[in-house]
Design goal:
With 350 residues, the protein is of the alpha/beta class. The protein has 11 helices and 18 strands. The protein is elongated and about 75 Å long. The structure holds pyridoxal-5'-phosphate.
């Protein structure tokens, strides 16, 4: 038996493609003479590769960074392999062979990875050097290794650890990157992520690699005026209910009504990335009205007070306020977490 397509879910993510393209163009412009690439790892930070990559490609972006080899297939539906860079690099001979077959560019992070890549046949690659984040990347002491000299390096890059803060580490990393660059034969240099773009063109070199800010994140105040919100979650009301003074709401009865109230139960919960940290702090919106969350966030639901929206009905859609800098301040999660946690049950446009 063939079953019909399921009806659309009661959760949706509106994606403002104009804002996305505008954010990329703004970051490209702020990069000065450098070109902006795009970090599209983790399904384009939760926004969806199929929504994001064609927009960025059409805006003029020609370098797309992902973390895992498992993400390559999704990218190749939209852009040619030489524009795809895999940040984790080849961790196994299979990874290196896959890069060779597909033509996708590995980012080499260690001597071990350099050896795997050369053993697989080598070819164009990028090299990540560590200038102080001490996470992923070749230690500076190893850039003179003969294996590195054998690599065909397109972009030499490094990654900033604290670019979203006014930390002296930024200038230290910049100075070390400048010192290392002449020791490696590479066609291009790249240092800045989104926050690094906000630090100014000293940090831009030939290519920048914004991620968060493309999707509406504001990691530094310099970007606040320019960057626009891209992801707009909405959730449907699945039940309306009236309660009386003394009635409690939700698990562990964390809210008790002190008067008669009209409540709405909404199809949005922590399984969708709307975590418990929003309990008692969040509000959804209907028209111009704020509908405060009551009690704990459940796995699939939240309950809101809809006193301010007397016309609200079952089936109506509520906006989930998701301006990333503001939402991060309110709930305590990082802007990155807020985006990448948005769950699989959201209907993302296609
Ligand atoms: C994720 C990532 C980026 C993008 O960082 P944002 O802070 O999201 O702009 C850039 N470069 C590397 C190496 C990354 O891992």
């Amino acid at each position: 038996m063939r079953f019909p397509e399921p009806p659309p879910p009661s959760l949706r993510l509106r994606i403002d493609r104009e804002a996305l393209a505008g954010n990329w163009r703004a970051l490209d412009r702020l990069s000065g003479t450098a070109r902006a690439g795009a970090a599209v790892k983790a399904n384009a930070y939760g926004v969806g590769v199929d929504n994001v990559v064609p927009v960025l490609r059409d805006a003029g972006c020609t370098a797309f960074f992902i973390a895992h080899w498992s993400e390559v297939g999704d990218l190749l539906a939209h852009v040619p392999p030489e524009q795809v860079r895999v940040l984790h690099g080849p961790v196994s001979a299979e990874d290196a062979a896959y890069a060779r077959v597909t033509g996708v560019r590995p980012v080499i992070n260690s001597l071990h990875q350099a050896r795997l890549w050369l053993d697989a046949g080598g070819g164009a690659c990028d090299l990540m050097v560590d200038t102080g984040i001490n996470r992923l990347g070749l230690p500076p002491a190893q850039v003179g290794n003969p294996l590195i000299a054998r690599l065909e390096i397109e972009t030499l890059m490094s990654h900033l650890a604290s670019a979203d803060e006014d930390s002296p580490q930024n200038a230290r990393q910049l100075a070390l990157f400048r010192q290392l660059a002449p020791q490696v034969s590479a066609r291009r240099l790249s240092l800045a992520n989104s926050a690094g773009v906000g630090l100014g063109t000293d940090y831009a070199f030939d290519m920048t690699r914004p991620g968060l800010a493309l999707y509406g994140g504001v990691p530094r105040p310099e970007l606040a005026e320019t960057i626009r919100q891209v992801a707009h979650p909405q959730a449907a009301v699945i039940q309306m209910r009236d309660v009386s003074a003394g009635d409690s709401v939700g698990y562990n009865a964390r809210f008790t009504a002190d008067r008669s109230m009209r409540l709405a139960t909404v199809s949005l919960g922590y399984a969708d990335g709307y975590l418990r940290c929003w309990s008692g702090r969040g509000a959804l919106r209907f028209g111009g009205a704020d509908l405060p969350l009551l009690g704990l966030v459940s796995m699939d639901m939240v309950v809101v007070d809809c006193s301010a929206a007397p016309g609200l009905r079952e089936g109506d859609w509520l906006d989930v306020p998701y301006s990333l800098p503001e939402a991060a301040r309110r709930c305590g999660l990082s802007q990155y977490e807020l985006l990448t946690m948005l769950g699989r049950r959201f209907r993302r446009p296609d």
